[in-house]
Automatic annotation (TrEMBL):
Entry protein name: Alpha/beta-hydrolase
Highest rank taxon of the organism: Eukaryota
Signal sequence segment: none
Keyword Disulfide bond: no
Membrane-spanning intervals of the chain: 22-46
Matches recorded under SUPFAM superfamilies: alpha/beta-Hydrolases
Residue ranges annotated for the Alpha/beta hydrolase fold-3 domain, each copy included: 153-374
């Protein structure tokens, strides 16, 4: 049965999450992961002992170590804090200030969580600014410059609303690969949205407010027509992409409602049913749990931190769009891995959205791969599959 709220004890809070326990447990874990690595380096020599007989030695070993590392992260309760400093990014790093409160209405309005200044990274660099055109129904006939026709990706990274920044250290490889596959001149803006952990924990609807801030930055400040914008989200980032689509469709207000819709929306290993992810037992007993590096404790942790009971239910339309399909003019590409625990909910979401008259949905299931190979296929040993799914997504965009 779907849960309305994640378990009360889903957020780590024992002695290992506080000093000196945090440091002690990290030191213990160094020895622990070394022993695990030694054991599985021998164990997985035999193909029959791997998580899947179709996996290579590298895939089995890398996925196992990732799962152990994620377990340790959960045990110590580590979450990431963010900075608005550009660092070495220079002009590729942009700061975006909130728009007027009118743009954050409906489900994104909150008495306690308000829009804040956020940052984002351009790949490979920012496009030249155009004159802001808030209403542009025929932009393809009025532009001459190649930059005015190229695609612009607005990307929302995953990681359970607890980690990552969209900067090159964690997202650069995929950002560059996606740009290359989308064609000449393609650029992407990877949002560093507020997280539900770290030194400024911001639950729902904070990250959703940040999607509006970023979208308005592209359309108003950069003068980019929505018909050039491709929304992209992986894992929990897909939750944000779909929330933005629903908001633009139903609650955007008169200004944004008069704009053309985004060009397309690409979802990779999407989190689209938080009423499932917030149930640690359901996730842990899923048939694909042995072949995925994510587990029920990790999923429930993210769900509880992002969606506290006093704020929103897990079966809310903005958190579980698989349960609440809606009409949209934006074509949607959905990819899932056949060996990940989100496979069923991703397919169910695609089927539900496809059943709505007028929707254009394409679903790709890549066999025998775990969660979010779109982002870490090159790390875990599935580089070919990573390229395959991005190729398919780019072909989808070219066809819309």
């Amino acid at each position: 049965m779907a849960r309305a709220f994640a378990e009360k004890d889903a957020i780590p809070n024992d002695w290992r999450t506080r000093q000196p326990g945090f440091t002690i447990w990290l030191l213990v874990s160094v020895v622990r992961i070394s022993l695990v690595a030694f054991f599985y380096s021998i164990y997985y020599i035999f193909r029959s002992l791997r998580q899947s007989p179709t996996w290579t030695y590298r895939q089995a070993f890398s996925t196992r170590l990732t799962k152990v590392a994620m377990t340790i992260v959960h045990e110590v309760g580590y979450t990431q804090s963010l900075s608005l400093d550009a660092g070495k990014l220079g002009d590729r790093w942009v700061i975006m200030n909130p728009a007027s409160a009118d743009y954050y209405g409906g489900a994104f309005a909150s008495d306690t969580i308000k829009p804040e200044t956020i940052g984002a990274t351009w790949y490979p660099d920012a496009p030249p600014k155009a004159s802001p055109q808030l209403i542009d129904d025929n932009d393809d006939e009025d532009v001459d410059d190649a930059d005015d026709k190229s695609l612009v990706v607005l990307s929302f990274h995953g990681s359970a609303f607890l980690w990552l920044t969209g900067r090159p250290d964690d997202s650069g490889f995929t950002a560059d690969l996606l740009n290359a596959k989308l064609g000449p001149g393609a650029r992407s803006l990877w949002l560093q949205y507020r997280l539900a952990g770290g030194d400024n924990p911001t639950p729902y609807p904070g990250p959703m407010q940040d999607t509006i801030t970023a979208y308005l930055y592209l359309v108003q400040e950069m003068g980019i027509s929505p018909s050039r914008i491709v929304l992209v989200g992986d894992s929990s980032g897909a939750t944000m992409a779909m929330a933005l689509l629903r908001h633009l469709q139903n609650e955007a207000g008169p200004v944004l409602a008069e704009l053309p819709p985004p060009r397309a929306c690409l979802l990779f290993s999407p989190s689209v049913e938080y009423s499932f992810e917030g149930d640690s037992q359901a996730v842990s007993t899923h048939r694909n749990q042995p072949t995925d590096y994510c587990d029920g404790q990790m999923a429930a942790w993210g769900a509880r931190a992002f969606a506290p009971p006093e704020t929103v239910r897990l079966d809310d339309p903005y958190l579980s769009p698989a349960l609440h399909p809606f009409a949209t003019p934006v074509p949607i590409f959905v990819q899932a891995g056949g060996a990940e625990m989100l496979c069923d909910s991703a397919k169910g979401f695609a089927d539900a959205m496809r059943a709505v008259p007028g929707n254009r949905i394409e679903y790709l299931e890549v066999p025998d791969v775990p969660h979010d190979i779109y982002m870490i296929g090159n790390i875990l040993g599935w580089p070919e599959e990573q390229i395959e799914m991005i190729d398919a997504a780019a072909e989808f965009v070219r066809g819309v």
